[in-house]
Amino acid sequence: MPDPSLLDVGRVVKPHGLGGDVVVDLWTNVTGRLDPGSTLASAAGPLVVVSSRPHLGRHLVRFEGVGDRAGAESLRGTVLRAPPVAAQTGDLWVHELVGARVVTPDGRLLGQVVAVEANPASDLLVLDGGALVPLRFVVAHRAGTEVTVDVPEGLIE
């Protein structure tokens, strides 16, 4: 059973080349997660980063003990997990949004956040009733409890 205090931070997409490198889709803007010496938790056990570099919007990563394509292939689809990092003022974290009530500035309940969906223009809060609210409309939040959104009239009915 995965450690609930850890966050999903990325996934091994596929092997790259013959020497054990893998392509990692990083789901966080904290690229330091892939610094050499960093340890990531996974279903395959702890994975220690030996090297990493950006590559076509993803990262090429070599993990300790993975020295060939077969070893890299065995990691395909592996979700990478790490502890939360300290938030900066105003940062929104997915694990603090999911489960929170969503209200308007006047206190009207819009629903509860069930997921956050990536979107090029603005990530979206997915509410339990199916409504989507762009994160750009979040004006306040209390971690894990409540998110206040100031949406234009007609965006959510």
Rg is 18 Å
The CATH homologous superfamily of the largest domain corresponds to: RimM
Count of helical regions: 2
The ordered string of helix (H) and strand (E) elements is EEEEEHEHEEEEEE
Query: Reading side by side through the largest sheet, how are the strands ordered?
Result: 3-4-5-2-1-6
CATH class term of the largest domain: Mainly Beta
Structural class of the secondary elements? mainly beta
Task: Note the main sheet.
Answer: 6 strands, antiparallel
Shape: elongated
Regions with little confidence, pLDDT below 50 for 5+ residues: none
Question: How many E strands?
Answer: 12
Kindly state the percentage of residues in helix.
Answer: under 10%
Count of folded domains: 2
What percent strand?
35-45%
Distance between the termini: 39 Å
Which architecture of the largest domain does the CATH hierarchy give at level 2? Answer: Beta Barrel
The mean pLDDT is 88
- Per the CATH scheme, the topology name of the largest domain is Elongation Factor Tu (Ef-tu), domain 3
Task: Lay out the secondary structure.
Blueprint: E1 7-16, E2 21-26, E3 39-40, E4 47-55, E5 58-63, H1 69-73, E6 79-82, H2 94-97, E7 101-103, E8 109-117, E9 124-127, E10 132-134, E11 138-142, E12 146-149
Parallel strand pairs: 7-12
Antiparallel strand pairs: 1-2, 1-6, 2-5, 3-4, 4-5, 7-8, 8-9, 9-10, 11-12
